[in-house]
Amino acid sequence: MSAETAVRAAVIAALKADGDLMNLLNGLFDGQPARAAPPFAVMGECIASDWGAKGVDGRELRLTISLHDAGDMAGRIGAMLARIDPVMQALDMDGDGWRVVNARLIRSRLMRAGARDGDGWRAVVDYRLRVVAQH
Fold first, then answer.
1. Is a pLDDT exceeding 80 seen at residue 28?
2. How confident is residue 19, by pLDDT bands cut at 50, 70 and 90?
3. Contact 58/130 with Cβ under 8 angstroms?
4. Which of these, 65, 45, 58, 55, lies nearest to 130 by C-alpha position?
5. Is residue 27 pLDDT above 80, yes or no?
6. Which one of 18, 25, 41, 93 has the fewest beta carbons within 10 angstroms of its own beta carbon?
7. Residue 38: is the preceding peptide bond cis (ω within 30°)?
8. Cα first-last separation, the chain
9. Per-residue b or e along 43-70, where b marks 16 or more CB atoms closer than 10 Å to that residue's CB
10. How far apart are CA 14 and CA 46, in angstroms?
11. Helix or strand or coil: residue 7?
12. Are 129 and 66 in contact (CB under 8 A)?
């Protein structure tokens, strides 16, 4: 399995296994859903590059997770955002052919979803994961 596919699947499974996060969401989607009612999360883009060395097959992956909420205040989306990093730091890919070396938050953004009050909130987090193949 490719690193991109394995990491996406592992991150989605780990986020879905977090009961506190899932209690705040109506759904977690792999890619932008055609229709979804906020609050929901989306596993977005995943970009991979080589991170290997002699005798080590490794990849550096950058992935994006976005959160969407229709609330007037940022409190609920802030609670969702707070659940992401603990999940990412505990990510275990045992049995997926890849092992996580580290997961680092690159940046996070919290913004109004639209120009008017009542348009809701959106948060985006970008992570860098380094993984090595397990043979």
1. yes
2. very high
3. yes
4. 58
5. yes
6. 18
7. no
8. 12
9. bbebebeebeeeeebbbbbebebbbbbe
10. 16
11. helix
12. no
Q: How far is CA 81 from the centre of its chain?
A: 10
- 93 CB contacts (<8 Å, ≥6 apart)? 6, 7, 10, 99, 100, 131
Among candidate residues 17, 22, 40, 27, the one with its CA nearest the CA of residue 91:
17
Taking only the tens place, the pLDDT of each residue in 30-83 is 999 999 999 999 999 999 999 988 888 999 999 999 999 998 888 999 999 999
Q: Give the DSSP letter string of 26-88.
A: SEEEES--SS-PSSEEEEEEEEEEE--BTTB-EEEEEEEEEEEE--SSSHHHHHHHHHHHHHH
pLDDT digits (tens, 9 = 90+) for 77-126: 999 999 999 999 999 887 779 999 999 999 999 998 866 666 799 999 99
